[in-house]
Design goal:
439 residues, mainly alpha, two-stranded antiparallel sheet, transmembrane helix, transmembrane, O-antigen_ligase-rel_domated, Polymerase
Length: 439
């Protein structure tokens, strides 16, 4: 009897250890590269080079990124086992490279391709190369959420003190501290991107992790509301519907009533200036300025540019072509029009093959893994992708880092799942060897 009790306690201890955020890594884990990847994520999101003078002076982010890039490329080239995302990445990358070479504004296209596509895609390489265990995945997610929490805290303090709030388009709008998220729309998008990770990690977290996630949720909601970003409002509503739809499958009546109650309460509590801002999505009436009219004009110009140049104008070349055709410079302010005008239907198709593969593989991981943390992150990545697609209705996100972050996490989780279920994920090499043995 004592042995049974001892056995059960050991199993319980093992379960808690494996699911703790700070569970120790396996002995063969290359911890240095995991820590450096986490450091890069924090450095990039918080823009430490601009915050800490000496880091900017020595170009710390560049040196760290270059070292990790070379190390990741060497490691990935030596890997025999590929992932299902590799093909779609190569296809999307090839289309981007083609439309950089054949562009109406080659200098602008090259700048975007190198500084955004190439550099941002390296994050996917870091995650694919160095994140091979559940412990490493937990470290990366912890680093990401820590960076989000810091930016959330800055937004909270900026709102409380009023130091980061000033009038824009007729209402007081909260702005970010760093240049990366200074614009209210970008800052709101950052906050919306936190919601999937909060939603799926909360149920599996311990008490202190729950407190941190609640703090991040409060900060994220304050940022979404007080940035006054209609882009953020639309994305939050659509993401909320996505979460709500999932809960309806569990208990339709309960979550139907709960969803309606939360929606009504949130609307009532929304300050009047921001309620009017929400209404302006439909009415197009604004307190100040003509942002809605400008967006409609951009929409018309985008359609005309596509009709006149249906094969695409090149990566980030739309503003140059637009000013040449219409004397107006602003970009598309829409992910889908950006894809269509920049890279024609080839860009749209290659992008959505890339995105569809990420979503599909995460669904496969959810159905196959027995690790609750991996399953939660796979669910969060799918919702994060949808959140970015929702934000793309009013934002230009084609060349942003979010897709590469999602792809990298997916490849990491694929390899983690593969390492424990090798028979389910045979490599191309093993499939070839098996076929030759049969023959």
């Amino acid at each position: 009897m004592k042995e049974q009790v001892r056995s059960k306690s050991m199993l319980g201890h093992s379960f808690n250890k494996n699911n703790s955020l700070l569970a120790t890594p396996k002995s063969n884990e290359k911890k240095l590269f995991v820590y450096l990847t986490c450091l890069f994520i924090i450095t990039w999101y918080l823009q430490l080079g601009l915050r800490v003078g000496i880091l900017g002076a020595v170009r710390f982010e560049f040196l760290l990124g270059a070292f990790l890039s070379l190390s990741a490329i060497v490691k990935l080239l030596n890997d025999r086992n590929s992932t299902p995302i590799q093909g779609p990445i190569i296809l999307f990358f090839a289309v981007l490279a083609f439309y950089t070479l054949f562009s109406y504004d080659r200098s602008q296209s090259w700048e975007t391709f190198f500084n955004r596509v190439v550099k941002f895609s390296m994050l996917a390489a870091f995650l694919a190369a160095f994140i091979r265990t559940e412990w490493a995945l937990k470290m990366v997610i912890a680093a990401f959420l820590l960076a989000m929490l810091k930016m959330g805290q800055e937004g909270f303090m900026g709102w409380i003190t009023g130091g980061m709030v000033w009038e824009n388009q007729g209402i007081p709008r909260l702005h970010g501290v760093t240049g990366l998220y200074r614009h209210p729309n970008s800052y709101s998008g950052m906050a919306v991107g936190c919601l999937p990770f909060i939603y799926y990690l909360y149920p599996i977290s311990n008490w202190w992790q729950k407190l941190l996630l609640i703090a991040l949720l409060v900060c994220a909601l304050i940022i979404i509301v007080f940035t006054g970003s209609r882009t953020g409002y639309v994305a939050t509503i659509l993401l909320g519907i996505y979460f709500w739809r999932e809960r309806l499958k569990v208990n339709k009546l309960k979550y139907l009533v709960l969803g309606i109650t939360i929606s009504i309460t949130a609307y009532i509590l929304l300050p009047e200036a921001y309620t009017n801002r929400l209404h302006s999505i439909i009415t197009l009436e604004e307190a100040e300025g003509s942002s809605s009219e400008t967006r409609i004009q951009i929409l018309k110009d985008s359609v005309n540019v596509f009709l006149s140049k249906p094969w695409g104008v090149g990566v980030s070349a739309f503003p140059s072509v637009r000013i040449e055709m219409f004397g107006r410079y602003q970009d598309t302010h829409n992910l889908y029009l950006e894809l269509l005008t920049n890279m024609s239907v080839f860009g749209v198709i290659s992008f959505f093959i890339f995105i569809r593969t990420i979503i599909r593989e995460n669904k496969n991981i959810i159905s196959r893994t027995d690790k609750i943390f991996v399953k939660a992150i796979a669910q969060a990545v799918i919702a994060f992708i949808y959140a970015r697609l929702f934000l793309g209705l009013f934002g230009m996100d084609t060349y942003e880092i979010y897709w590469w972050f999602s792809a990298g996490l997916t490849m990491a989780m694929y390899r983690i799942t593969y390492s424990t279920h090798q028979e389910r994920f045979p490599s191309k090499t093993s499939r070839f060897r098996r076929a030759t043995q049969i023959l």
